[in-house]
Write a structure and sequence with these properties.
15 strands; Pnp Oxidase, Chain A; two-stranded antiparallel sheet; 3 helices; alpha+beta; 19% helix; globular; 7-stranded antiparallel beta sheet
Length: 206
């Protein structure tokens, strides 16, 4: 989509400059689940995912520290809300079995919790542009399910495909971008040339 900028660079009343919008669509994404739980491979479970929802993850409060006659503020603890994944229910029940086996890694048959490093896993949600190039990747670090069985609503009247929603907790969410990494690399490569050009033109930044 092309759109005129709305101001005249030439100064003669001719709007010759346009900008190009390249927008991300929601259908071009992929979820990558942890490798194996209960003998079920994560990549097979991932293909049934229809909806991924996470955020907001934000600093919920500001703490203050008295310093002499002044009061200094600093950020509080970042909190991350629940991540929700919604899957289509396959006939072989593999999605429910996968999360059931994952949850069982957390709590033993005697009811004791296992160390967190034994059951937390990383999940990846990847967005692609229309050419198939990765535009953004979200790493859901230290994820684990907070329920063994999903909330299920079965009704004859709807006759729709059964969907299963699972809630997970995560330690942190990291975002990266292949395109952003390339952009940063090009910028770093051109920075010396840019700085040299500023010096030749006598431009001094304060």
């Amino acid at each position: 989509m092309l759109e005129k900028l709305g101001f005249d660079i030439s100064g003669v009343g001719a709007f010759l400059t346009t900008k190009i919008w390249m927008l991300q669509r929601t259908f071009n994404w992929q979820l990558l689940m942890p490798h194996d739980f209960g003998g079920i491979v994560g990549i097979l479970v991932s293909q049934y995912c229809q909806d991924v929802e996470f955020g907001d993850y934000s600093i919920t409060e500001i703490a203050s520290l008295r310093h002499g006659a002044f009061e200094r503020f600093y950020a509080g603890i970042q909190t991350i809300d629940v991540v929700t994944l919604t899957f289509l229910a396959p006939i072989d029940n593999s999605v429910t079995d996968y999360f059931h086996a994952w949850y069982n890694k957390m709590i033993s048959e005697e009811g004791f919790y296992s160390p967190k490093q034994e059951y937390r896993r990383d999940i990846y949600a990847v967005l692609y542009d229309r050419t198939g190039i990765e535009s953004a990747k979200f790493k859901l670090k230290g994820a684990f399910p907070i329920s063994r069985i999903p909330k299920i609503r079965a009704a004859y009247g709807e006759e729709d495909v059964l969907r299963l929603s699972f809630s997970l907790r995560v330690d942190d969410i990291e975002m990266s971008s292949l395109i952003g990494s390339i952009r940063e690399g090009v910028t770093n490569l051109l920075s010396p040339v840019y700085n040299q050009a500023k010096g030749m033109l006598g431009i001094v930044e304060e």
